[in-house]
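Reviewer 2 asked us to include a model.

Predict the structure of this chain.
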Amino acid sequence: MPRYCGHRAGAKALRRIMRVCADLGIPYLTVFAFSTENWRRPQDEVDALMTLIIEFAQSEREELREKNIRVVPIGDLSSLPSDTQESITRLAEDTQAGDRLTLMVAINYGGRAELVQATRDIAQAAAAGDIDPMGVDEEVLAAHLYTHPYPDPDLLIRSGGEWRLSNFLLFQLAYAEIYCTDTLWPDFGPEQLHQALAAYRHRKRRFGAAPSDER
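Predicted model (structure tokens):
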């Protein structure tokens, strides 16, 4: 089957997962919709993905508002086709009052590109005298990332049998727990999400430290 069929099935998986997350009281869900590297894919596939984003924004708008789900796009939206850019921006505006679940959708996003852009912004602020270069720390850098002011992820779920970050949230995932599954994203559903959450509950999160009873 054509690749776009898989992408459409993946959009259905997103609908399932965001509903479950909202029901479970999970406050944040971030999904990788389109990376900066995806522009190198065949043009017909890129066009299909841009169209799918528009369709998602239009078809899910009312349900997202009814379920109090806020959509926050992260990435360089300025490089998207105008109709795609307008549709995702409008969806973000129409759902900004949602306080049940924040759905961050990474579109034209790359972790390295994000860090480069943040570095440029900080450098410009330093050159203008607004920031003391010696005062730049992790908090300052984090404040210039696309994900500001939202918290770092606690859990990264990697589907499809892949074991790499794929340039996703490189700074923010420093202490996230990683869960990999062979299940392809279009087949990912509530059962697989509950399995990932169950595995997460058994992890010991130390953030570089050690419990007082360990030597």
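The chain has six helices and five strands. The first helix runs from residue 3 to 24. We have added this to the supplementary material.
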